[in-house]
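User: ok so my PI wants both of these folded by tonight, can you help

Assistant: No problem, let's get them done. Here's the first:
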Amino acid sequence: MRPVRAIVRRAIEAAGLVTLPAREWQRLREAMTLRNVHRKDVVEIEELYRSFVFPDLPRDPARAEILHNLHGTTVGEGVHIVHYLHRALRVGGDVCEFGCNEGATSRLLAHEILPHAGRRLWLFDSFEGLPAPGEKDRLIDDIAGTGSMAAYQGDMRAHEEQVRDKLALVPFPPDRTRIIKGWIDKTLATADVPGTVAFAYVDFDFYDPIRLALEFLDRTMPAGGFAVVDDYGFFSEGAQLAVDEFVAARAARWRMLMPHPAAGKFCILERIAES
């Protein structure tokens, strides 16, 4: 029986998709082997969090592969998302992601709420990449070496079909999915939004869209809900500023929690009281 990699190579080349020299195929095989080896690291990391930080983190053998394939999100942040999502499921409401990009984190959210038939997944994204930065967005981590905040406009663009492909891997029912395309200042002003939100992942990078998402959650999230906000203290200064201003103005209703620095650059907001 021929090795699977040889069959795959011949099939790809026969289809005219790509022809690589033998040495390049060797490098590709080595990279794939190394990636599969590190897949086991995810299991170890999750178990360490379960042992020392989140003892009630639910077990799911299928989760490791999804955590392993997150893009731009650390495994530590992924574990935090899972933990606080499951805590939030104690209250009523749907699950939202603000800034879903190509859907790697959407897939994680969908996988975790799949058994909860009454929950819908709302995914908000412009699918036009990053917007123009506002006056409160100052570059603190030049992740792509562009030299300016304005140069990131239109970057990190994904397509709606990429998200749907990720959700199909779960598989998450299309009738429980709402993908809302457009800029958040316009989409949140329509009637096509969830009435109650139990959990949200906010990954909008810049001050204005994060502020708008948090103000929406202040109107729709009951006490006991949680939001994880990505890029707190990273990339754009506006992300942290939006969160800090929001919590300071609503200290009676919201509490901010910080992860261990090794987990990544994000924060957790807990809804502690109704308005």
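One down. Here's the second:
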Amino acid sequence: MIERINPGARASQMVLVGGRLETSGIVALAPYGDIAAQTRCVLAQLESWLAQVGAGKENITRVQIWLADMGEFAAMNAVYDAWVGAQPPVRACVGAALAAPEYLIEIQAFGQI
């Protein structure tokens, strides 16, 4: 059975199936500020979404990160590294044009619950 969490017209925020979870891409709620501020906002949302299904960041197995500017890689990593904890998931990070120029980062997560 597939459980869709907070479905919208185009996508659900998260999908649960067979003990696995997948999020949609998460961007900053207010896409202003620097990469550190947007990264903190995105990671806070991710934690909130996970909490809705009784999970935490320790349940994340894979993270995909898109950066609008790979020159921001170190600044994003400073925030991510402080957040991720002692059991980091596998991760990929690539540069990409995001949906709007205000967005500096987008994160998608996968995990096991």
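The mean pLDDT is 97. Strands lie at 2-7, 12-17, 20-23, 60-67, 90-95, 105-112. Good luck tonight!
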